[in-house]
Structure formats: structure tokens, C-alpha cells
Specification:
The complex is a heterotrimer of chains A (415), B (200) and C (658). Chain B is mainly α and 200 residues long. In chain B, 76% of the residues lie in helices and 0% in strands. The radius of gyration of chain B is 19 Å and the shape is elongated. Chain C has a single domain, classed as Up-down Bundle (Cytochrome C Oxidase, Chain A), CATH 1.20.210. Chain C has a four-stranded mixed sheet, with no helix packed on it. In chain C, strands 3-4 form a two-stranded antiparallel sheet. The longest helix of chain C has 36 residues. Classes of the chains: A alpha+beta (415), B mainly alpha (200), C mainly alpha (658). Chains in contact: A-C, B-C. Chains B and C meet through helix 2 and helix 6 of B and helix 5, helix 6 and strand 8 of C.
């Protein structure tokens, strides 16, 4: 009875296995093909196989052969298994010799992968230390993560014209061809800074400073995203690194250091400034802003925010994004113009900033109207007992439409 | 069948290793406990210097006092050995005696710990005062709970033995509690050395 | 609990015992049928079934969570779940699958089959076994209770500090998570002590360690890993709950804490945990492949030692989860190398399985299909794992979908496929009926296709730069052309539906088999190991007489011998082998008796936990329950006294178990 069973299984198995062969071979070919397409066809902004700077290139030089070797071994094992499956299926052959193994073969097949891995290990070892090198750094930027945006703080570096500290957010602006050291930390939970085209990711841990070296070969804009789960709006914590030619970078620095210019009297923007001073200033600093009596206006995010910080909005319109790079300040066509620019013309376009015609009115107004509705944040005052009433993210300020009108006009003056 | 011969089925003679199930199980459990205390000790070592606004270890520790209570606990290991040896000889009277003495010594140690905690608290070192205080209380507290559990086991076993209700072999039960007791003592020696004797 | 009063004929005579003395506050339970016989059982087989049934339930829960996640991510800016719910969903999906499905399912198989495979009649500590099960079940239910009490945990299964602190996660979700895992941890620890003792101490005569079935071996390694890994996470969970519930500051950076402490504690547990999840399945297929290849496992000692090596080296690789966390180049380089080292013993296993097939006489039952599927799928997962061990490359791929793909190939293609192989292989042993093979084939192919469709594209998504744990993805980062995020996310979501249908077929198969499945013959697969040397399902006492072991693959060697020409020929049928055992049957076997205390004691744990969250008096009530349970337990013998059994046995021929 047992024997009969076996032959039944044997004959039906042939058909089934023929199908299996086609499917398995098909899916392997499919997988290999799609992997290829993935590597070069989609031009995704965060593609991990398209290095645009030396650090990412070092990684890429290591990972490409490793992936290739892994792929070859994978195909090899799969093929061997498939051959075994077809060659040795039950065709009524007698019960095989009860061999318990072949130690020589075992040892050989243990040593071969061990050797391959040794080679990989040696290169890995070297690369780890290559990447850790910071001694030839040319520029330093302090990067601070908080829920759910990044702050960039440029300490005074006279050789780049940074004669006063610059604080900005949303977009990290760096000179191309310059070895920039990011000194990362966090004000609340752990975040991770990752611009795949420039380097691998590095966590920003509160209470610690971690070093992360990046360099962009050419001017352009490089996308990234926070990659350590950091709470409710983790998905909306993005970043963009903007590389400018050295000359353009100097222009950018000069613009950031330009003193505050209050809007002209009797303009909508001037009314907007008043709204800003009544509302936004509780958290958002605009450097150089003064009250009518000439006293400086100082924001107090430490009193209102868990992280103790909110984006500094000086020169807001020199950036292309807001709210942790979640939303564009540029409307769609202007954004595509900047992102799609060749590296020669990129700098000029980026330095153009956001004009009234290019402003993404929908998102900016929506944000001013009810920020937590656009980006999930812990901003409901009723639910803030655990944080002593402090916010994580921007609350709904209950602004009137006319306030919003005025604020937009004012914000547009922050060139 | 008597209770004693009953346990022979899971007694040493019938197991593959020659060690009874109960003893092997206890050894495994204690192996696991090593990692528990390892984790707690590591946490303490990491945080012992982080006193914040609270008192420093050297400001609160009363090393002579703790040395005495450590000595008491150490002595209890000796009396535990006597209890186990009496149990092996089937000497019920001495088994009860030494088990009870061990429990009393253990309880004295726990009492000392309660006194010490109270004193620390009064000196301004609460559970949440600093990372040092939290990790100190957690580590020594976990150890104290282990001693307390040991004391409860020792006292229960005396009560149960006196009413002859011990399922299984008496001497093995006493021996198992003994294993646990010695382990807890050894852990204390490590903790005492790391916390009190080696300055942060 | 029952006395087994056997005549020497092969007909079964079960005389039920009625233990009547009251040694605790309560008389011992005596039911042998009905729900009470399950609730108070200490029988390793009943407990194994309950473990697996509960695990299957949680598998469905975790699966539904997964499908919701995939539906949310099918298109950009998904609106099915909000951010808060999504974060809870992926946290609970992982927690459920790891702690409430794979671990207990493996524990269920271990419970059921380890005693059978080593020729024992029960585990070393039957009541602790029952306690482990109930603690796991109550812990799992407690964890999921959070869904109805203000939301589940939302910090990810890795629960990194300080995001898990009270300020950043104000709901009670993480409290339930911490305490629920603490309870299941107690269950795992008790189970580990129990099973290790069982394996080391209760082997049949002649069953040397190197004659043990490989499944038992792999489980032994797993239990040792649990024994040493669980206390580490216990410490971490205690620290976190002291922070959340009692105001300590262990992970509060403003108080000077170091958030990396959590990461180290978590991953020192977490990496061995990976092997805890995968090794049982390695064990299963190392049983299944030889049976359906009709030849022994190739290089049995290599498989054993590589399993042990994986278990050992598994302790030295935890920081490879932290390559991006700023450890410094020396640590990164060292852990990178140690991680590569662990690939070697893993590779050994793949070689051995493949070589087991080679030269065999392969029969492709559903169990075999899943086993072969595991070899290929796990290899893919293993190789993507090797690419992660290259630390610089890992800093590009970690926390992207590439890693999600990697561990799903390892854990779904590996662990889950192995478990399914075990289901089809052992179903007739446990329930006496064969699962439908035709449905099994569909089940297999839909799962293979579904799983490759779901997790295959995630490699690509990850390499294209889609981070994980995001409740929405945006078209701004999706790339151009057809094969961008949009295509692959949709593809993966469709795949998850195919996968779900595959799993649904398995559930349908269970129902069909239960209703009118084919009754299994004594030895449906022509199997090789000891668990098949008893009836289907096994008798309560497992073996009529304990066999003496003289071979690895004992059962096979009793059935087959070499003839003069060196060809293996069948010399005995399974029935004849059984008959030999029956002819030497022990007359009176006193099995461990049922008890109220395991479930009673376990029930105290969630009460304590509930109290810790809401009100200390409730916790005290829980504590009293636990203390009372301990007391009742400690004065109750594991097996009721002989005079409680009816009919009374003559002293000399009683065999006691446990």
C-alpha cells in the first residue's frame, strides 16, 4: 500500500514539478531583471545606489560587489536546489544508500564561504575606517533633530563668510566639493540623518554628538528622510541637502546674514508683521525683528515646546520647503524648475528663493489655518498633561482668514 | 508506596544526566538569574556616577553597617550548609533548627536593608532623585526581593515539613532552597564589592 | 492523571483515576473530557495543542494587522489608518508575530514533540509546563487588551528610548506592552528550564545526545538562548516600567540618562531572539527533508554543531542592529566581522539540506514543499543579511524597506515556512487525520507566490530609498517611470492579499480535515524518528514501553535493514514495530495529575500588571493570588499519591511519570 502511494505521488509530481520549474526560473529571472531596473531606471531621489559624493561613493564601491557576490551565490544555491528537486524526485528508484554525510565535502563547503566572507570582511574593515575619517574636514555644521524637523546651525567660519552664526531649517545648504562635517544631536528622541546620495545614515541621539561627514560632488539638491522611528509624524520628517557652487554658497551666506528689513508701513505685510509678533513669536524667531519701541523680539519656544525649539524663520523664503521639509514653499512648476535644473544653472535658480508667483499658497495657507490637520502632531492642548502642557509640533492657532492673508504677505518679505 | 520511594522516579538514578530534574531545573534557573543580575549590575555601573542634584554614593553609604549585614548574610550560607547536611542525614530536628536560623539571618539582612533604605531616603536619596539612586534601589531592591523570597521559602518549608506535607524528598527540597540561597549570597558579595567597596 | 490499566493484548484499556485527596485548598481536578480536562491539564500534548491553537489565533490577528498596513501603503498618502493608528499597527504586528505567534508556535511543537522524540512520557515539570502556557496566553491577551483601553503601544517593537518614555508616548499602550511582554517572558523562561531539563534528563535508554532527533537538538539550543536572553529583556522592561509607572529616569536624557542603554539591552536579547525564532523551523525541516528524501540528514553532526555555533555566536553580534547609532568605527568593524562569521554556520545548514536532497528519492508532499521552499527563501534572506553585515552598506539600507524584505525572507520564508512544513508533517500525528494534500499544494504555492510578491519588491523599495515605519509615503520621493515606489508598493499590497488567501486555504484545510479528513495510517510518511513509534494521536502515556535506542533515526532502523547486497529493505512494518512495544507494555503508568494551580497562578500575573498601570490595590490583589497559588502548588505533589488511583495498582509494577 505504501509503495503504491509513492508511485502515485511520483507520476503526478512530474507535472507539478514541470510547472514549478517554469515558475521558479521565471521568478528568478524576473527578480534579477527588476533588481536591475530598480538600480538604474527610476531615478528615485533617495536611491541608495546612486552616490553623488565621495562618502556615498566609498560605500557604493563596497556594496556593489557584495550585492553581486550575494546575488551569484543566491542564484547558485537556487539552481542547485532546483536541479536536486528534478533529478532526484521519486521515479520509483530504490531507497538510496543511507549516507550520513561526507566530512571532507562539509569542511570544504564551510571553508569556501568563510574565505569569501574573509575577503568581504577585510574590505569592510577598511571602509569603516575610511568613512570614519574626519581630520580633513573643511566645514562644520551643527545638525539638531527634534520632532519633526531638523535645525541647521552654522557656527562662525570666516573663510566662508559666516561671520555670525546662521540658523536655518528644512534645507541644509552646503558648498559643493567641500568636506562638511555634520555634528548631530537631538533635542528629544532619537532621529537619524540620511541623505543617501551623500552618505549612509547616522543617528542623532539626545545627549550625544555624532559625527557625519558629507560632501557633494556637484551643485544640486539631494533628498533624504529621517530613518529612526521618532514618533507620530516620523513619516513627515524629511530633509533636503542643497549643494551650491562656492561662489553661490557665498551669496547664500551673504543673504542669510542680511539684516532684518521690516515691511513698509501701511502694507498688508506690515499688518502681517503685527500678527506674527502677537502669535508666531511665541515659538518662531525672526532675527533682528524689533517692536515699535525698538526692543528686540525674542521667541520663547522653550516655554511652549517639549523639544524647546521651533524653526527659526529668518529668511524663510530663501528655502524651498517648510514644516520639516514636509511641504514645498514652491508651487509645482517652480519646484520642478529648481529640482530639474542642470548643475550649472541650479545655483542661480535656487538663490532666486520663493517669489509671490512661485509660492505654494495652498499648503502654506492650509498650514497657517490648521497645522495639525496637515501633519500629525501632538498639538491638542487637552492631551498634553504628560508633557506639562508643552507641544510637540505646531498647534492650531485659530487664525482668521484675514490674519492668514496678512501673514502670508509678511512671510513673503522674509527673503 | 512511601513518599520517598515515590520520588525515586524523578530522582537521580533515573535521569540521563544523573542529576535530578529538580536540581537541574534549579541550576538552569540560577544560570538565567546570572543574566538578570548582570543586566542590573551593568545598569548600575553605567549610572552610578550620575547623581544629578542628589547625594553622591560616598555621602550616603554607611560601609561599616552594610559590612555587618553582609557578614550576617554570609553566615546564613554557613547555616544553610548545616541545614542541608542535616537533611541529608535525615536529622529532622537539626534540619528545622538550621533552616530556621538561616531564615532569621536572612530576615536580619533584609531588615538591615530596609533600615538602610530608610536612612538613605531621609538623607534625600529617593527612588527618583537621580539615575544613581534609581539604579541603586533597583539593583539592591531586586536582590532584597530575592532574599525575601528565600526567607519565605525557608520559613514555609519548616512549617510544611513539620506537618509532613512535603511532596517529594525533604532533603532534596532543602538542598534546592540551599542552592538558591547560596546563589543569592554570592550575588550579594558581587554587589557589595561593586557598589560599596569600589568607589565610583 | 489517569492510571493506565493495560491488558497485554493491544486493545486499550483506560481506567480513569480519581485523585480525591485534598492537599491544597481544593481537591484536584479529575475531568478527563470536556473543557475542564483542557483547563487543568498538565499533559504536554494537550498543552502543545493549546499553545499552537493560541499561536494560530495570534497569527491571524497579526496577519490582519499586516494586511491593514499593506492597504495603507498601497498608494501614496494612504488614508485608511491615521498616523497614530498606523504606528500602533506596525508595533503590534511585529510584537504579535514575534512573541505571540512564532515563539509560542515553536513552543507548542516543542512541547508536543520533544517528549515523543526522546522517548519520554511527559516533560520534567508538567505543572510548570501548564503554567508557562497560561502565562503566555494571559500575557498575549493582556497585550492586546490595550487596543480597547486607549490604544496599543506605538513605539515600534524595538521600543527605542527615549521615544518610549511617558512624555513621548502618553497613552497606556506601552505600559500594556511592557507588562504583557514581562508575563510572556516569565512563560518563556519557565518553559526553557522545563524543556532543557526534559531533554537533558528524560531521554530513553540509549538516546545519547548525538542520537537525538535534530528538531529536539535545535529546540535545545533555542531553550538555552531563551534561558539567557529573556532575563536581559526582563531587566530592560523593568527599567522602562519603573520609568513609566514609578517616575524613575532610566532613559530620560534630561536627567542624564543614556538612551543607548536600552538599545544594548534590547539587542543583546533581540539578536539571540532572531535565532530563537528561526532555529525551531530549521529543526522541523531537518526532520522533514530526510523523511521525504528517504535518506538520513546529511552531516547530522555538522547540523547539530552549526546550530549550537549559531546559538553561541548569536550572542556576539547584537550591535549590528546599531551600525547607524554612532558606536564608533572600532565597535562597528568588530560587530561587522562577527556578523559575517555567523553566516558560516548558517551556510553549513543550507549545504546540508541541499545535500540531503541530493541523491535522495524525493517525495513532494506539502510538508516537503514547504521545507524545500524554506531552503531557497531562507537563502535569499540569509544573503541579504550578509549584505547587511557589511556595515557601511548597512548604513544605507538599515531602516529602509530593504531590511523589511530581509527579515521577512528570514522569518516568513524561514520560520513560518518551517512551521507550515511541520503542520503538514505532524498533523496526522497530533490529530490522527491527514491534512488535505491538494489544498496543501495550493496553500504552498499561494504562500510562495504571495510572499515573494509581498516581500520581494521591498528589496527594491528599500534600495530606492523608502524608509520603513512611515504611515505614508510621498510621490515626491517615489522616482520616475513605471517601476517606482507606486508600482512596487501596489505590487506588494496585492501580494499580501495573495499571501492571505494562501493562509486562508490552510485554515480551510484545517476545517475540512477536521470534518472529513482522511484517517492517517500509523506511519503515513514512512518516518524515521521516535515520535512515530506510537499511535496517532499518541496515547496519553506516549509509549506503552519505553524503547531502547540504538540508532539515530531509530524508527527507520527498526523498519529497514540492509540486505546481503547492501540495499535497504523493509523488514518490519510500523505496526510490527509498535507491536513489539505493546508486548512489553508497562502495566500501570501513573501520569502527572491535573492541577488547578498553574492556571490560577498564571491568572494572578495580568492582575498585578493591570494594577501597576491603574491602581496599586489591584496589583496587591494580584500578588495575593500569586502567593496563594504558590502555596497551593508547593504542597501538592505533581502526581497524585498511588492510593488515589483506581483501581489500586500493586506497588511493584507502577511506573511513575513526573
Amino acid at each position: 500500500m505504501r509503495h503504491q502511494n509513492t508511485t502515485d505521488h511520483g507520476t503526478t509530481a512530474v507535472n507539478r514539478l514541470a510547472g514549478m520549474r517554469r515558475r521558479v526560473v521565471g521568478s528568478i529571472a524576473g527578480l534579477a531583471g527588476t533588481m536591475f531596473l530598480a538600480g538604474c531606471a527610476t531615478n528615485a531621489p533617495q536611491d541608495t545606489f546612486q552616490p553623488k559624493g565621495p562618502n556615498a561613493k566609498i560605500i557604493d564601491d563596497l556594496q556593489k560587489p557584495v550585492f553581486a557576490v550575494a546575488g551569484i551565490i543566491g542564484v547558485f544555491v537556487t539552481v542547485v536546489v532546483i536541479i536536486a528537486v528534478f533529478k532526484f524526485r521519486d521515479k520509483g528508484q530504490p531507497i538510496p544508500h543511507q549516507s550520513h554525510g561526507n566530512p571532507a565535502l562539509e569542511i570544504t563547503l564551510t571553508i569556501i564561504p568563510a574565505l569569501i566572507l574573509t575577503v568581504v570582511g577585510v574590505f569592510t574593515f577598511r571602509t569603516v575606517f575610511d568613512l570614519a575619517k574626519t581630520s580633513d574636514t573643511e566645514m562644520i555644521i551643527n545638525v539638531t533633530g527634534q520632532q519633526w524637523w531638523w535645525e541647521y546651525d552654522y557656527p562662525v567660519q570666516n573663510e566662508y563668510g559666516i561671520t555670525q552664526p546662521i540658523i536655518t531649517s528644512g534645507q541644509l545648504v552646503i558648498p559643493a566639493g567641500t568636506k562638511v562635517l555634520l555634528r548631530q544631536t537631538s533635542r528629544d528622541v532619537i532621529h537619524s540623518y540620511w541623505i543617501p546620495a551623500l552618505n549612509g545614515k547616522r543617528d542623532a541621539v539626545p545627549g550625544r554628538v555624532h559625527l557625519n561627514r558629507i560632501e557633494a560632488d556637484k551643485p544640486g539638491i539631494y533628498a533624504g528622510q529621517c530613518t529612526e522611528f521618532c514618533g507620530l509624524s516620523h513619516a513627515n520628517m524629511r530633509m533636503e541637502a542643497v549643494a551650491l557652487s562656492k561662489a553661490d554658497f557665498a551669496k547664500w551666506v551673504a543673504n542669510q546674514l542680511k539684516p532684518y528689513a521690516s515691511p513698509a508701513e501701511n502694507t498688508l505685510a506690515k499688518e502681517g508683521e503685527t500678527v506674527f509678533m502677537n502669535q508666531c513669536i511665541r515659538c518662531h524667531q525672526v532675527n533682528g525683528m524689533k517692536r515699535a519701541d525698538g526692543t528686540p523680539v525674542i521667541a520663547a519656544p522653550d516655554e511652549n515646546m517639549v523639544s524647546g525649539a521651533a524653526p527659526n524663520l529668518s529668511h524663510l523664503m530663501s528655502r524651498n520647503t517648510f514644516a520639516g521639509a514636509t511641504f514645498d514653499l514652491l508651487n509645482k512648476s517652480c519646484r520642478e524648475d529648481v529640482w530639474g535644473a542642470e548643475s550649472e544653472s541650479f545655483g542661480a535658480k535656487y538663490l532666486g528663493g520663493v517669489s509671490e508667483d512661485c509660492l505654494n499658497q495652498t499648503d502654506l495657507r492650509g498650514w497657517l489655518r490648521n497645522a495639525p490637520a496637515m501633519k500629525p502632531m501632538y498639538a491638542n492642548p487637552a492631551l498634553l498633561t504628560s508633557s506639562g502642557g508643552k507641544y510637540r509640533g505646531m498647534p492650531n492657532l485659530g487664525l482668521t482668514e484675514s490674519d492668514i492673508e496678512k501673514l502670508v504677505a509678511y512671510l513673503l518679505t522674509l527673503k | 508506596m512511601t513518599t520517598d520511594s515515590h520520588t525515586e522516579t524523578d530522582g537521580a538514578a533515573h535521569t540521563s544526566t544523573g542529576l535530578s530534574n529538580n536540581k537541574l531545573g534549579m541550576w538552569l534557573f540560577l544560570g538565567s538569574e546570572c543574566l538578570l543580575f548582570g543586566g542590573l549590575i551593568s545598569t548600575y555601573m553605567l549610572y552610578r556616577g550620575r547623581v544629578g542634584e542628589g547625594p553622591r554614593p560616598s555621602q550616603v553609604f554607611d560601609i561599616p553597617f552594610t559590612s555587618v549585614s553582609s557578614f550576617v548574610l554570609l553566615m546564613s550560607s554557613l547555616t544553610m550548609v548545616l541545614a542541608v547536611s542535616a537533611a541529608h542525614k535525615g536529622d529532622d530536628r537539626n534540619t528545622y533548627l538550621w533552616t530556621t536560623v538561616t531564615a532569621i539571618l536572612g530576615a536580619t539582612f533584609v531588615g538591615g536593608q530596609v533600615y538602610e533604605f530608610t536612612a538613605f531616603y531621609n538623607e534625600g536619596m529617593g527612588f527618583t532623585t537621580s539615575l544613581f539612586s534609581s539604579s541603586f534601589y533597583v539593583l539592591t531592591g531586586f536582590h532584597g526581593v530575592h532574599v525575601t523570597v528565600g526567607v519565605i521559602m525557608l520559613m514555609s518549608i519548616v512549617g510544611i515539613m513539620k506537618r509532613s506535607k512535603v511532596p517529594g524528598s525533604k532533603s532534596e527540597t532543602v538542598e534546592m532552597i540551599g542552592l538558591y540561597w547560596h546563589f543569592v549570597d554570592v550575588v550579594w558579595i558581587i554587589i557589595f564589592t561593586l557598589i560599596y567597596l569600589i568607589p565610583a | 492523571m489517569a492510571i493506565i490499566e493495560r491488558s497485554i493484548t493491544s486493545t486499550e484499556v483506560f481506567s480513569v483515576a480519581t485523585p480525591s485527596s485534598s492537599l491544597g485548598a481544593l481537591k484536584r481536578p479529575v475531568a478527563t473530557t470536556g473543557w475542564k480536562s483542557w483547563l487543568f491539564t498538565v499533559d504536554h500534548k494537550k498543552l502543545g495543542i493549546m499553545y499552537s491553537a493560541a499561536a494560530l489565533f495570534f497569527f491571524i490577528v497579526g496577519g490582519l494587522e499586516a494586511v491593514l498596513i499593506r492597504l495603507q501603503l498601497a498608494a501614496p498618502n494612504g488614508k485608511i489608518l491615521n498616523a497614530d493608528l498606523y504606528n500602533q499597527m506596525f508595533t503590534m504586528h511585529a510584537t504579535t508575530m514575534v512573541f505571540l505567534f512564532v515563539m509560542p508556535m515553536a513552543a507548542g511543537l516543542a512541547n508536543y514533540f520533544i517528549p515523543l522524540q526522546i522517548g519520554a512520557r511527559d516533560v520534567a515539570f508538567p505543572r510548570i509546563n501548564a503554567f508557562s502556557f497560561w502565562a503566555f496566553l494571559f500575557g498575549g491577551l493582556f497585550l492586546n487588551l490595550s487596543w480597547f483601553l486607549g490604544g496599543a503601544a506605538d513605539g515600534g517593537w524595538f521600543m527605542y528610548a527615549p521615544n518610549s518614555g511617558p512624555v513621548f508616548s502618553p497613552s497606556h499602550g506601552i505600559d500594556f506592552w511592557v507588562l504583557g511582554l514581562q508575563i510572556t517572558g516569565i512563560a518563556s523562561l519557565a518553559g526553557a528550564v522545563n524543556l532543557i531539563t526534559t531533554v537533558l534528563n528524560m531521554r530513553a535508554p540509549g538516546m545519547k545526545l548525538m542520537r537525538m532527533p535534530i528538531f529536539t537538538w535545535m529546540q535545545l539550543v533555542v531553550q538555552f538562548l531563551l534561558l539567557f536572553a529573556v532575563p536581559v529583556i526582563t531587566v530592560a522592561l523593568f527599567l522602562l516600567s519603573f520609568q513609566r509607572n514609578f517616575g524613575a529616569t532610566f532613559f530620560d536624557v534630561s536627567a542624564g540618562a543614556d538612551p543607548l542603554l536600552w538599545q544594548h539591552l534590547f539587542w543583546i536579547f533581540g539578536h539571540p531572539e532572531v535565532y530563537i525564532l528561526i532555529l525551531p523551523s530549521f529543526g522541523v525541516i531537518s526532520e522533514v527533508l530526510p523523511v521525504f528524501s528517504r535518506k538520513p540528514l546529511f552531516g547530522y553532526p555538522f547540523v547539530v554543531f552549526s546550530g549550537a555555533a549559531i546559538g553561541f555566536v548569536g550572542w556576539g553580534v547584537w550591535a549590528h542592529h546599531m551600525f547607524a547609532s554612532g558606536l564608533g568605527p572600532v565597535s562597528v568593524a568588530v560587530f561587522s566581522i562577527s556578523t559575517m562569521a555567523i553566516a558560516v554556520p548558517t551556510g553549513v545548514k543550507i549545504v546540508n539540506w541541499t545535500m540531503t536532497l541530493w541523491g535522495g528519492k524525493l517525495e513532494f508532499t506539502a510538508a516537503m514543499k514547504f521545507a524545500v521552499g524554506l531552503i531557497v527563501l531562507f537563502t535569499i534572506g540569509g544573503l541579504s543579511g550578509v549584505t547587511h553585515s557589511v556595515a557601511p552598506s548597512d548604513t544605507q539600507q538599515t531602516d529602509t524597506y530593504y531590511i523589511v524584505a530581509h527579515f521577512h525572507y528570514v522569518l516568513f520564508g524561514g520560520a513560518v515556512f518551517g512551521l507550515f512544513s511541520g503542520f503538514y508533517y505532524w498533523w496526522p500525528k497530533v490529530f490522527g487525520k491527514l491534512l488535505n494534500e491538494k489544498l496543501g499544494t495550493w496553500n504552498f504555492w499561494l504562500m510562495v507566490i504571495g510572499m515573494n510578491m509581498t516581500f520581494g519588491p521591498m528589496h527594491i523599495l528599500g534600495l530606492q530609498g523608502q524608509p520603513r515605519r512611515m504611515y505614508q509615503w510621498t510621490e515626491a520621493r517615489a522616482g520616475e517611470g513605471l517601476f517606482n515606489f507606486g508600482f512596487w508598493n501596489m505590487f506588494a499590497s496585492i501580494g499580501s492579499i495573495v499571501l492571505s488567501i494562501g493562509i486562508l486555504l490552510f485554515l480551510i484545510n484545517i476545517v475540512i480535515t477536521a470534518r472529513n479528513g482522511k484517517v492517517a495510517p500509523l506511519d503515513p510518511w514512512d518516518a524515521r524518528s521516535l515520535e512515530w513509534m506510537t499511535s496517532n494521536p499518541p496515547k496519553e502515556h506516549n509509549f506503552d514501553s519505553i524503547p531502547t535506542i540504538s540508532h539515530l533515526d531509530e524508527f527507520f532502523h527498526r523498519k529497514y535493514q540492509e540486505d546481503a547486497s547492501g540495499q535497504m529493505v523493509k523488514v518490519k512494518t510500523a505496526e510490527q514495530v509498535m507491536k513489539e512495544l505493546e508486548d512489553n507494555a508497562d502495566a500501570h503508568i501513573h501520569m502527572p495529575s491535573p492541577s488547578y494551580w498553574p492556571i490560577f497562578l498564571a491568572a494572578g500575573l495580568p492582575v498585578i500588571s493591570f494594577g501597576v498601570i491603574y491602581s496599586i490595590p489591584i496589583a496587591i490583589i494580584g500578588g495575593v493570588i500569586v502567593l496563594f497559588g504558590c502555596y497551593g502548588w508547593s504542597i501538592e505533589p505533581s502526581t497524585a499519591p498511588d492510593d488515589d488511583f483506581d483501581p489500586p495498582a500493586t506497588t511493584k509494577d507502577v511506573v511513575h511519570v513526573g
